[in-house]
Amino acid sequence: MAGTRSSTGRSGADAPRGAEHELLAHTAEVKLRVRAPDFPTLAGEAGRALAALELAGDVPPATGDAREIVLRAGDQGALLVDWLNELIYLAETERWVATEFAPEAGGALELRMRARGVTVDIAPSRVKAATHHGLDVRATADGVEAEVVFDV
Amino acid sequence: MTTETTAGLPVTRGACWYDVPAGARPGMRVPARVYADATLWEQISKDRSLDQLLNVATLPGVADRVYAMPDVHEGYGFPVGGVAAMDARTGVISPGGVGYDINCGVRLLATELEVERVGDRLEAVVHDLSRSIPSGTGRSGRLSLAADELDRVLAEGCRYLVQRGEATVDDLEVIEAHGSLARADADAVSDRAKTRGHDQLGTIGSGNHFVEVQAVDEVLDETAAGLYGLHRGQLVILVHTGSRGLGHQVCTDYVRLMDQVMPRYGITLPDRELACAPLRSPEGQRYFGAMCAAANFAFANRQIITHRVREVFRRAFRDQGDVRVVYDVAHNMAKLEEHGGRELCVHRKGATRAFGPHHAETPPRYRTAGQPVFIPGSMGTASWVLAGTDGNMELSFGSTCHGAGRAMSRHAAKRVKSGSDVRRELEARGIVVRCGSTGALAEEAPYAYKDVERVVGVVHDAGLARRVARLRPLGVVKG
After folding, report:
1. Do the bridges between strand B342-349 and strand B78-87 make them parallel or antiparallel, or are there none, so unpaired?
2. What stretch of H or E contains B286?
3. Would you say residue B136 has pLDDT above 60?
4. Whether the Cβ atoms of residue B392 and residue B465 lie closer than 8 Å to each other
5. Residue A42 burial (CB < 10 Å; 0-12/13-18/19+)?
6. CA-nearest residue of chain A to B258?
7. Smallest Cα–Cα separation from A9: which of A113, A111, A101, A119?
8. For a tag on chain A, would you pick the N or C end, based on fewer CB atoms within 10 A?
9. CA triplet A140, A146, A147: central angle to 5 degrees?
10. Over the stretch B20-77, which tens digit does the pLDDT of each residue have?
11. CB A62 within 8 A of CB B449
12. Residue A11 confidence (pLDDT)
């Protein structure tokens, strides 16, 4: 499938080593593929991709204190979707877009992330939701890879 | 009819449709039909629309046949432009079959003004509309509701706005379900959803949502147009928006819930976004109540926008600035309806209800014509007023298309032309544009969509709805 490899919205901070994302073709929505050495790093990279979408590619450096976000789910796919929907919710209700991510040690199906971000004037809810459509988190020779579709 | 093969599937081609038998793929419980001509079929075959439609045909309790309208395109879970009816006793309800923008829909407003009389005041009117109706993503409206007020909007929809003076009793007569779904359950809407929506009433949102000032350009059915109060040269306003962040969060909450409970009901699916539960289960009933509440919020959203439009036109045209609701119809909804003596839960995702003249839910004043249906074209192209048909109940559970339908991804559209170029081209054609994001203009450019004339032609020829009038854009307000 044709796609657009993105430089991960690195304006705020460099992407972690081995993490990258690309936008794949989809007729109406935004389909994201993310690769990283491990799942927590992948979640951070997906968060960076989401920030680039929300801020139309213009991601400023993060400001202010980090906040800790802790989520649990029944499997990694659901955990990834929950994580992205949490970021969408924070962007729309608090006008706070998370742009930098530092994973912390967590349980097998737990995501524990410290995130820093930016407060914006207008809540950037261009992205309505992360969906479960075609959700696929799989192990690869280099770590882990996932695809997720955003409703925009 | 001829039989051919598309993507390895046996397909029977009819006059205006393409049929895939139930046995074409393991798990399909019913056959599938795509309404299209050869050109649209070729476009539809290029993305995953058909694949997604066949997935829908595997849902428990699905009745008779699943349908794709001629504007169908790839979505998530259901295709956008998909229709599926589930047996209300034995079938499921799927939040993904309604979509994140619950009760996204279209409302047509008619003025008493002739376009030629408005003349050079058009730009000022469009500008005032853009100032009065917040359009950008997540941008709050001027109406911020207290918790008890929001609960009343969720429970009562537009009926509550009559009490507040933001709607009239006459408005309610020409809104689907009178703008108030009785099964709404405000308590089934999460606090997170309410937080997202409490200050979003009266806002358009992003993507393909808009408020457009239009001219009635051509009337093809004088009788129906007369009943709808439309005539050539008249200035009208088309509003396209939905339930905003509140609806998005309701869908997010319930897809998550149903994803978790499906094993309890022994449901396995080819796509997790089709997550569902039996309609009669506690989870199914709770989602249905939340969805109806979000739908009431969307009806109220379009009503508050109507209220703002009325303020703008009164400021501009004083005693000649009256604005009347022609009709308001949803295109992302699950409704309990009777079809062939059965109660079915009809999921329409990117598809419009289009009941005929003799249906009890067609407003009495429109009974000899059929329920009005509005089909927005792509930005800068024509939109259409159609009328529902009685025969449609046998053809697609009383459904028709909802727009032109995307043919090109947003990214690809932006590669063709810049937003500035699209704006210049629209303005060169005399269309006034107010858009918060230039990039959004490129994503929504006409070439990113199918030909609305072709889509409406298939709908008309197939008997899903009748052409009544064509509308020409004069001014566009977008997020």
Report:
1. antiparallel
2. helix B282-317
3. no
4. yes
5. buried
6. A132
7. A101
8. N
9. 140
10. 999 999 999 999 999 999 999 999 999 999 999 999 999 999 999 999 999 999 999 9
11. no
12. 33
HEC string of A21-69? EEEECCCCCEEEEEEECCHHHHHHHHHHHHHHHHCCCCCCCCEEEEEEE
Residues of B with CB under 8 A from a CB of A: 47, 49, 73-77, 80, 96, 99-101, 136-140, 192, 195-196, 206-207, 245, 248-249, 251-252, 255-256, 259-260, 271-273, 275, 406-412, 437, 439
* B39-46 own/partner pairs: CB under 8 Å, 24+ apart: B39/B454, B40/B70, B40/B450, B40/B454, B40/B455, B40/B458, B41/B6, B43/B407, B43/B450, B44/B68, B44/B72, B44/B73, B45/B6, B45/B7
Spacing of C-alpha A6 from chain mean position: 13
* pLDDT one-digit tens code per residue, B374-395: 999 988 899 999 999 999 999 9
Torsion sign across C-alpha atoms B22, B27, B29, B30: negative
Which residue of A27, A78, A126 is in closest CB contact with B259?
A: A78
Nearest to A111 by CA among A41, A37, A21: A41
User: pTM for the full model?
Assistant: 0.95
Q: With contacts defined as CB-CB under 8 Å, which chain B residues touch A26?
A: 74, 409
pLDDT for the residue numbered B144 = 82
Counting residues of chain A whose pLDDT is more than 70, the rounded percentage is 89
Residues in chain B: 479
Say if residues A143 and A35 touch (Cβ distance below 8 Å): yes
Shortest Cα distance, chain B CAs vs residue A37, angstroms: 25
Please give the Cα distance from B342 to B331 (Å, whole number).
22
